[in-house]
Amino acid sequence: MNGRRRYSSSGGSCPATPSSYSSKTLTDRSSPTDTGKSSSFARWISGLFINCFTPPDSVSSKGFDDSEHDIRSRRSSTGSVQRHYHNGNANETENPRFTFDEIYDATKNFSPSFRIGQGGFGTVYKVKLRDGTIVAVKRAKKGTHGDTQGAEFVSEIQTLAQVTHLSLVRYYGFLVHNDEKILIVEYVPNGTLRDHLDCKDGKILDMATRLDIATDVAHAITYLHMYTQPPIIHRDIKASNILLTENFRAKVADFGFARLAPDSESGATHVSTQVKGTAGYLDPEYLTTYQLTVKSDVYSFGVLLVEILTGRRPIELSREQKERVTIRWAIKKFTNGDSISVLDPKLERSPANNLALEKVLEMAFQCLAPHRGSRPSMKKCSEILWGIRKDYRELLNTSL
């Protein structure tokens, strides 16, 4: 396995791989009260995009640079969106024009044979468009315009329209038509990080690949926190939301729970919000205070790091009581000087792997601090991981 090659565009043609565009998530403690009809919802969403739609480049960013785009959008009679961009001095039309007829035809009326994921939001299909582009089509459950799923759909399209980064799933467009809500995003062909930690395809992720994935995710979240305005809080960072390319590079997906952080100029430090996320990854301070900050993502990232190193899920009820909550078990082992015992048993015990384990665990536990003020920023996490990966490679090369 070559886990360290930088990948190219991931619109692959491999067979549909079950991916977790789906998730088991905590529900709202209360539901939104919007009960507008589908036609008014469609008009509203159209107006929203005409006024504030800022989609990404067709080519993903290679760093944290955030280019600006000017856009004119108009709805077609089928409910699709046609987009015209001005990027610098170039005047060009980018991204395909989506119609419901095309999506229906491509999925053979949403045949189960095209299904690659299922979750609370709805169903995800792998689709080949008329121009040959392979995309993932997220079809919302029917009758969800005024409930939680409807709100998540709006959240996801608003968020995806703002971002462009190599380690974030690329957004292509959306459709609202009658009682249908459809989101079209990049198809990432190699399943989820959770799939590979479980060795569903029989291959083991080596430590070098795991460090690459952790670094990719850290860069993606750093971009959301620091290089979007206002900052974006993902709120559902977890292994089943990390999609992998054919070259085993990570792309963060599923922005249904994302929220915009307070503008720094306003003086606000948090967003008061209904608690959302996934059990085992939730920031305990957010859970008790309802105050969401970028440090809530940092906590979830700390859980993810422990998951990457141990191979275990955050909560494993099948284990004995003292090992059921993975981070508590790992912290106790680390504190007792027995951190090597938490390393995924599928990985070799070697000087390079042991070094990476110690250093990443140390940073992960900083991310898991009970109070957000004690947690590092995602930018700091990215810098530390970059250094760990560099030291790991050097030690690995000297051991050969």
Summary of the model, kept short:
By secondary structure, the chain is an alpha+beta fold. It has helices at residues 38-52, 100-107, 148-160, 193-197, 207-226, 284-289, 294-310, 326-335, 351-367, 378-399, and strands spanning 70-75, 81-87, 90-92, 115-118, 122-128, 134-140, 171-177, 180-186, 232-233, 242-244, 250-252, 259-260, 271-272, 291-292. A five-stranded antiparallel sheet has the order 4-5-6-8-7, with helices on both faces.
Structure description:
- Residues 110-366 form the Protein kinase domain.
- Belongs to the protein kinase superfamily.
- Residues 16-37 have a biased composition (Polar residues).
- By secondary structure, the protein is an alpha+beta fold.
- It has two domains: 38-186, Phosphorylase Kinase, domain 1; 193-399, Orthogonal Bundle (Transferase(Phosphotransferase), domain 1).
- 33% of the residues lie in helices and 16% in strands.
- It has ten helices and 14 strands.
- The chain has helices at residues 38-52, 100-107, 148-160, 193-197, 207-226, 284-289, 294-310, 326-335, 351-367, 378-399, and strands at residues 70-75, 81-87, 90-92, 115-118, 122-128, 134-140, 171-177, 180-186, 232-233, 242-244, 250-252, 259-260, 271-272, 291-292.
- Strands 4-5-6-8-7 form a five-stranded antiparallel sheet, with helices on both faces. The chain has a three-stranded antiparallel sheet with strand order 1-2-3.
- It is globular, with a radius of gyration of 21 Å.
- The relative contact order is 0.12.
Helix content: 25-40%
Count of discrete domains: 2
At the fourth level of CATH, the homologous superfamily of the largest domain is: Transferase(Phosphotransferase) domain 1
Question: Would you tell me the overall average pLDDT?
Answer: 76
Strand content: 15-25%
Separation of termini? 17 Å
Question: Residue ranges: pLDDT <50 for 5 or more in a row?
Answer: 1-96
Which structural class should the secondary elements be placed in?
alpha+beta
Please tally the β strands and state the result.
14
Biggest sheet, spatial arrangement of strands: 4-5-6-8-7
Please write the CATH class name of the largest domain: Mainly Alpha
Q: Main beta sheet: strand number and arrangement?
A: 5 strands, antiparallel
Q: What is the helix tally?
A: 10
Which outline best applies?
Answer: globular
* CATH architectural grouping of the largest domain: Orthogonal Bundle
Q: What's the helix-strand series?
A: HEEEHEEEHEEHHEEEEEHEHHHH
The CATH topology of the largest domain comes to Transferase(Phosphotransferase), domain 1
Rg, rounded, reads: 21 Å
